[in-house]
Queue: 2 jobs
Job 1
Amino acid sequence: MDKEDRENLLHTAAAAIDYGLASRHKHRIDLDLNAFNPTLQQHRASFVTLTIEQQLRGCMGTLEARQPLVLDVAYNAHSAAFKDPRFPPLTQTERDLLHIKISVLNPPCALRFTSEQELLEIINPGEDGLILEAGGHRATFLPSVWEQLPEKSQFWIHLKRKAGLSDNYWSKQIQVSRYTTESF
């Protein structure tokens, strides 16, 4: 994406949050797709991460492309601000301190491995986002999570915990996909 596309997405995310604040979280912003560049109308998956003073304040996203990127970003920005179950709805006071980060996902690719050790050998710290699926459990970590968990084994253990699995969980049915993101 070029600089203008990135700026349009960041503006859209901010507008979606501001609209949500004005409507007391009840309504999502309506967007005219024709007002956006064709690149932003393509179906893509995204995550919107909100921070205040470098502390997480909300993060919501989609793993599969289901709608035009600009709509996905608007929806995820609103959800991160007002629907993330880890936090109360964003307040106007917090809005002035908010930093918005958007991650546009490239399509995930299933990894082939026969053991946990083999999996750890093929993942790329700092580059790969991972999707873990096992026994009805599912979780993902964006590539940016490597900043907090730079060791492969710790990244993997925390991803299993996020999925509701034990640290030592292993099954032949475990599925892992990797993806990369364009983040700004």
Note: The chain has two domains: 3-105, 109-183.
Job 2
Amino acid sequence: MNTKLQLSESEALKIVEVIYQKLLQEGKAAAVAVADEHGELLAFLRTGGCPLPAINIAINKAFTAARERTKTSTLGARSRNERFPMTNFGDLRYNAFGGGVPLIHDGTVFGGIGVSGLSEEEDEQIALLGAATIS
């Protein structure tokens, strides 16, 4: 991790590679997105066999996790429990499905990872695996 708390392209690619290897090992297909601290895309991969809707969903999960500085599963649970629609954020990219995780170092969010194409639980577990490679 660099000292500026800014996610580099090489770190984003490292996250994608770790997740890609896990997907290959398990014979699974998914989309993987890595975003900077603003939620903007730095790296992306869609493996063969991944459903097309997973592309935008993964990107939006990374965006949401970085912007809201929390896991998308947590935000989704809050949305359901507190009964506020996700459209209240004013940006249709916000996503409430599990599988988006923020990248945090010493309490500061410096990016987000989104994985889509599997179950929400699997998406989140694999995103957390990616986050552990550089956090």
Note: The first helix runs from residue 9 to 26.
